Amino acid sequence: ANIFITREGTAKLADLGLARSEQGDDRLTVSGHTIGTPAFMSPEQASGKSDIDIRTDIYSLGAALFALTTGSPPFTGEGIFAIAAKLLTEPAPDPRSLNPTVSPATAQVIARCLAKQPAERFQTPHELSVAITAALAVLSTATPARPLTPLVARPLSEQVNRAHPTPATVAPRKPRPPVVQRSPRSVHWPMISGIIAVTAVAVVIGMMWNSRAPELRRAGTSPAVPAVTAPVIDPLPNSTSPVPSERPLITRPEISQDTLAPAVAPKAVPAVMSPAIGGLIAYWPLDEGSGIQIRDRVGKDSTGTITNATWGPGKIGGALVFAQPSKVDCGNAANLTPRDGITVMCWIKSTMVVPDRYLASVLRHDGHFTALQLSPDGTAHASIWGYGNMNMAVFRWRGAWDDGLWHHYAVTFDQRDGVMIYRDGKPFAKIPDVAGPLPSECKAPFMLGASELNNEYFNGSLDEIRVYDRPLTPDEIQTLAVVPGVPVAPSVNSGLIAYWQFDEASGKIARDHSGKSGDGMIINAARGPGVHGSGLVFTPPSKVVCGDSRVLAPRAISVTCWLKTAVRAKGLEPISVIRHDGHFTALQLMPDGTAQAAIWANGHVDRMIFSWAGEWNDDRWHHYAVTYHPDHGGQIFKDGKFLSAYPKLIGALKPPTAPFVIGGSDVDGEYFTGSLDEVRVYDRVLSAAEINDLASVPIK
Question: pTM for the full model?
Answer without folding.
Answer: 0.41
